[in-house]
Automatic annotation (TrEMBL):
Signal peptide: none annotated. This is Prepilin leader peptidase/N-methyltransferase. InterPro entries: Peptidase_A24A_bac (IPR014032), Prepilin_IV_endopep_pep (IPR000045), Prepilin_pept_A24_N (IPR010627), Prepilin_peptidase/N-MTase (IPR050882). GO terms for cellular component: plasma membrane. It comes from Sphingopyxis fribergensis. One of its GO terms (molecular function) is aspartic-type endopeptidase activity. GO terms for biological process: methylation; signal peptide processing. It is found in: Cell inner membrane; Cell membrane.
Length: 255
């Protein structure tokens, strides 16, 4: 990351924003197409009239703004999910490089970009694909050390111990209560997060994720008629959010 570290502060933030825009466009497409069995790499087209989209239609954020969120041919509304994900991905890059310039900031941004599709897929479909969990974990073990100055051993321990712990808890709950407490992808996600954070920061992440899940469940209970005990909670969404938030919080707590 020598080239990226050499960028002036403002240029680094702007470059991270541009990368976030491009990745956000791809992530939005992936989250919308993959669960529906559609090709992620296929030619983009209007969902209303089927017109293949040109380069002018695919500029992240700007195309949607210029067309006022509608297809130029059939005037069908474009799913706002696209620009929201693009904006969120852009903000990940901006915040990471603005608060943590240098290698640690770029790693924090990459962490956020890898977490984003997992969070969205779990929020919309209660699905945490094994391939994305594996990618997150492998990248964390290979390069995440400078982000929180964690050793490879700390990250291995975080991945193995925390992943196994959640898997054991889920299996124990299933045997005692005869129903699943969490999806099969949740322990794998936590293991992959441990490969980035190391074992030391994982209790903070799990605390933040659990708190977020509880608040979400209580709010959802007030808005619906489904009993709280029967309401599925997208724990992966809160685990991803908590993991990204734990990166700047953990050094403050550990001091």
């Amino acid at each position: 990351m020598t080239f990226l570290d050499a960028l002036p502060f403002g240029m680094a933030v702007a470059f991270a924003a541009m990368i976030g825009l491009v990745l956000g466009s791809f992530i939005a497409t992936l989250v919308l197409r993959w669960p529906a069995g559609r090709s992620v790499l296929g030619r983009s087209q209007c969902d209303g009239c089927g017109r293949p989209l040109t380069a002018l239609d695919l500029v992240p954020l700007l195309s949607n703004f210029a067309s006022r969120g509608r297809c130029r041919t059939c005037n069908a509304a474009i799913d706002p999910f696209h620009w929201r994900v693009e904006l969120g991905s852009t903000l990940i890059g901006i915040v990471a490089l603005a608060l943590s310039p240098g290698t640690a900031g770029w790693l924090w941004a990459l962490f956020g970009w890898l977490l984003l599709p997992l969070a969205l897929l779990d929020a919309r479909h209660f699905w945490l694909p094994d391939c994305l969990n594996l990618l997150l974990g492998i990248v964390g073990l290979l390069i995440a050390g400078p982000m929180l100055e964690t050793s490879l051993m700390d990250r291995w321990v975080g991945a193995v111990v925390c992943g196994l712990t959640l898997a054991v808890i889920a299996e124990f709950y299933r045997r005692v209560r005869l129903k699943d407490a969490m999806g099969g992808g949740d322990p794998k996600l936590v293991a992959a997060i441990g490969a980035w954070l190391g074992w030391q920061a994982l209790p903070l992440m799990l605390l933040l994720a659990s708190f977020g899940g509880i608040v979400w469940a209580l709010v959802a209970q007030r808005k619906g008629d489904q009993p709280l005990s029967q309401r599925p909670v997208p724990f992966g969404l809160f685990a991803c959010t908590a993991a990204w938030a734990a990166v700047p919080l953990w050094p403050l707590i550990a001091q």
